[in-house]
Write a structure and sequence with these properties.
globular; about 290 residues; 3 strands; 10 helices; mainly alpha
Length: about 290
C-alpha cells in the first residue's frame, strides 16, 4: 500500500509504505482511508473535522475533533449535535460504498468529551434515525453491519455489564427495524431479499448471542461483583477484551459465505473468541 493513508483504528496519517500505523501500530492489512487530497484544512479543527466527514474520512475527522477537545475546546449543544449528525451521515455514505468495518473512532472521541456526552450511544441513535432515509437494500444491510461495529465500540466506553446488556437489546431492536426496512424495498444490484435476510440475520444472531452471554455473566457474578468489575475496567485504558468481540463478530459475518465444513470451523473459532471475552472481562477482579 503506497501513499499517505489514514489509520482506520486511530485516525492518524501514516506513510502507507510502512505497512502499519506509526502511531498505534495497526497493520494496514485491510481497508484504510486514503488521506484525502481534496480536503483543504483551515486551521480550525472543528471546521476541518466537518470537512473530513463530508469527504468520507471518518477516522481523521474524529481524530481532528479529539485533538481540539484535548486542547480545551468544549463543543456546545449545537456543535455537538452537528458532529453526531455528520458522523451518522458519513456512515450512511460509507455504507453505500460498501465500506463496512470496525472503527474505534467513536470511543476515542467519546473518552475525551465531557462526561455528560454519550457520543457512542448518540451515534447508535442517529444511525437508527437514518434508517427511514435509506433508499437501497444494500445501504440498509451495510448500515446494519456498521451499526454492529459501532455497538461493539461502546464496549470501549461503558464497562458496566448492565449498561452493555441494554446496548445489546437496543441493537436487536434496531436490527428488527432494519430487517423490516430491507424487506419492504425492491432488490437491487448484488442484493436480493434472501441475501439481505441472511446478512441482517447473522447480525441478529451475534447481538442475541452477546446479549445472552452478558446476561449470564451478570447472573453468575451478582450485583456486588458486577459493580467492582465495572469500577476496575473503567480505570483501564485500551480494554483488552474488546478485540475478542471484534474478532468474534467478524467470524460470525464470515459464516454468510462459508461452506458447511468451513462454517463449523468458523463457528468454533467465534465461540472461542466469545469465551476469551468472558474470561478476560471476569478476570478484572480476582
Amino acid at each position: 500500500m503506497s501513499g499517505r493513508v489514514v489509520c482506520p483504528e486511530c485516525g492518524r496519517v501514516s506513510d502507507g509504505e510502512t505497512g502499519f500505523c506509526v502511531s498505534c501500530g495497526r497493520a494496514f492489512d485491510g481497508p484504510a482511508d486514503r488521506a484525502p487530497s481534496d480536503v483543504r484544512t483551515t486551521g480550525d479543527p472543528i471546521a476541518d473535522g466537518f470537512s473530513f466527514m463530508a469527504s468520507g474520512s471518518l477516522a481523521e475527522a474524529a481524530n481532528t475533533w479529539a485533538g481540539a477537545v484535548r486542547g480545551g475546546h468544549v463543543p456546545d449543544d449545537d456543535e455537538y449535535g452537528r458532529m453526531v449528525s455528520s458522523w451518522c451521515s458519513c456512515l450512511v455514505s460509507l455504507s453505500a460504498s460498501a465500506d463496512v468495518r470496525y472503527r474505534r473512532s467513536g470511543s476515542d472521541l467519546s473518552n475525551v468529551l465531557p462526561e455528560d456526552r454519550d457520543l457512542c450511544l448518540d451515534i447508535l441513535s442517529g444511525i437508527r434515525s437514518c434508517l427511514d432515509g435509506c433508499t437501497s437494500q444494500v445501504v440498509v444491510v451495510n448500515l446494519s453491519t456498521n451499526y454492529m461495529f459501532a455497538m461493539i465500540d461502546c464496549f470501549n466506553v461503558y464497562t458496566d455489564l448492565n449498561d452493555l446488556l441494554e446496548v445489546c437489546r437496543d441493537a436487536r431492536s434496531f436490527l428488527a427495524l432494519a430487517s423490516e426496512r430491507a424487506a419492504s424495498m425492491s432488490s437491487d444490484g448484488s442484493m436480493d431479499h434472501s441475501k439481505a435476510e441472511l446478512y441482517i440475520g447473522t447480525n441478529v444472531e451475534f447481538a442475541s448471542m452477546l446479549e445472552e452471554r452478558i446476561a449470564t455473566m451478570i447472573g453468575s457474578a451478582g450485583p456486588d461483583l458486577v459493580d467492582r468489575l465495572s469500577d476496575h475496567w473503567s480505570s483501564v485504558p485500551n480494554l483488552p477484551y474488546v478485540q475478542d468481540l471484534v474478532l468474534a463478530f467478524n467470524m460470525t459475518a464470515q459464516t454468510r459465505v462459508a461452506g458447511r465444513f468451513m462454517g463449523r470451523m468458523i463457528v468454533k473459532t467465534r465461540d472461542t473468541e466469545m469465551e476469551l471475552f468472558t474470561r478476560k472481562y471476569m478476570s478484572g477482579v480476582q
